[in-house]
Structures are given as structure tokens and as C-alpha cells.
Amino acid sequence: MTEAVVFDVGRVLFQWQLRALFEKLVEDPADLDHLLAEVVTEQWHFETDAGRPLTDMLPERKALFPDHAPLIDAYAARFNETIPGPVPGSIEIVRELHRREMPLYAITNFGAEFWDAFRPTQSVFDLFRDIVVSGKERLVKPDAAIFALAAERFGHAPEAMLFIDDNRANIDAARSYGWQVHHFTDAPTLRIDLERRGLLS
């Protein structure tokens, strides 16, 4: 039996791509590819997810890439522009589950400062009873500790919760810790699974 549904945020509920911001700022495609591959990379960005403050990250990066300092500053100042909109169909699923009085939660790898700027822009998060944010907890998926913290905070046994994430490593980890899981690819496929589980009709 499923007592609660737990969503990832990035690439499950909302699109996320660094390119969405920087294609506005860098005209040459080769320069853009270089920037995203070497300077403002997803791997570097993920340090914020683990709780590293921007006040440490930005000066260090600009010292390494001084010619790109304005773009590194733009990454911090305009981060919400890396989130171009919802994943098609996902927010509707959240609202339907809420109307059915299904308890909703989230576990997201998200920098604390970026979360504080993004969260107020999206009223859908008001439907969630609790959201565990990696940057605030200084714990990241797929580490066991963040799943243990979430289970404690959410108040449901792992086996009673359905965890939805687009990242295979996170899904495999959650399954190994006893959670029900859905490896997200798109909202229509998720809807079919939720209907099969009797959570939507």
C-alpha cells in the first residue's frame, strides 16, 4: 500500500538546464559548449547541492577562469533562468494526487541559496507537506543518510512511500533502502504507473 508520494524536483517537476540561461548570454555555439563543458559545469554546480555556499564557490571559480567572471556571476544572479518551466504534465499529476488527499513530499538535490530564490516562485510547492533540500541538510542523493532523514521527517516507512526520480542512481539507492520507486522518464509514463498502483484513475 502506498501512503505517500515523494517527488524529485529537477527534471521531474521542473526542467533544468544550464544552457537555458547561457544561450542568452553567449552567441557563439562553440564558446557556449566550452563554457558548459569546462567552466560552469553541472559537476561544479552540484557542489551547491551538497551545501557549499556560493560565497566560497564563485571567487574560486573566477580565479580559475577570470575571463569568464561575468558569466560565473550570471550563474549565481540569474539561476532561476536555468529552470525554463515545468516538465510537461507533471504539475497536473501533483495537483490530482493532492485532490485525492495523497500526502506529498519531495527530496531534491538543490542548493540552499538557489532553493530560497526558486521556491517562492512556484505555488505548487504549497501542496507538499515537507521538502528535504540537499543543500540545506548538506546531504545529497543517492546517499543513504538523506533517505533516512526523509523517512524520519515524513513519518512514513520507506516501503509505504513511492519515490519518483529521473536519476537511475537515486532510484537504485532508494529501492535498496526499501522504498517503492518509479524511474521517471515523462509524465504520461508516470501517470500509467500511478493508475496501475490505484493512486490515479
> What's the CATH architecture name of the largest domain?
3-Layer(aba) Sandwich
CA radius of gyration: 18 Å
CATH fold call of the largest domain: Rossmann fold
β-strand percent reads: 5-15%
Overall domain count:
2
Query: Which sequence of SSEs, written as H and E, runs from N to C?
Result: EHHHHHHEHEHHEHEH
Residue windows where pLDDT falls under 50 for at least 5 positions: none
CATH superfamily of the largest domain: HAD superfamily/HAD-like
User: Strands across the major sheet, in which order?
Assistant: 3-2-1-4-5
Main beta sheet: strand number and arrangement? 5 strands, parallel
Instruction: Give the number of DSSP strands.
Output: 5
Question: What does this entry look like structurally?
Answer:
It is globular and about 55 Å long. The model has no long low-confidence stretch (mean pLDDT 98). The protein has helices spanning 18-22, 29-39, 42-49, 54-64, 69-77, 90-99, 112-118, 134-137, 144-154, 168-176, 187-196, and strands spanning 4-7, 104-108, 130-133, 161-165, 180-183. The chain folds into 2 domains: 4-15 and 84-196, 3-Layer(aba) Sandwich (Rossmann fold); 18-82. The protein is an alpha/beta fold and 201 residues long. Helix content is 47%, strand content 11%. The protein has 11 helices and 5 strands, in the order βααααααβαβααβαβα. The longest helix is centred in the N-terminal third of the chain and has 11 residues, at 29-39. α4 (54-64) packs antiparallel against α5. The chain has a 5-stranded parallel β-sheet, with helices on both faces. InterPro entries: HAD-like_sf, HAD-SF_hydro_IA, HAD_sf. It comes from Qipengyuania benthica. GO terms for molecular function: hydrolase activity. This is HAD-IA family hydrolase. It holds the Pfam family Hydrolase.
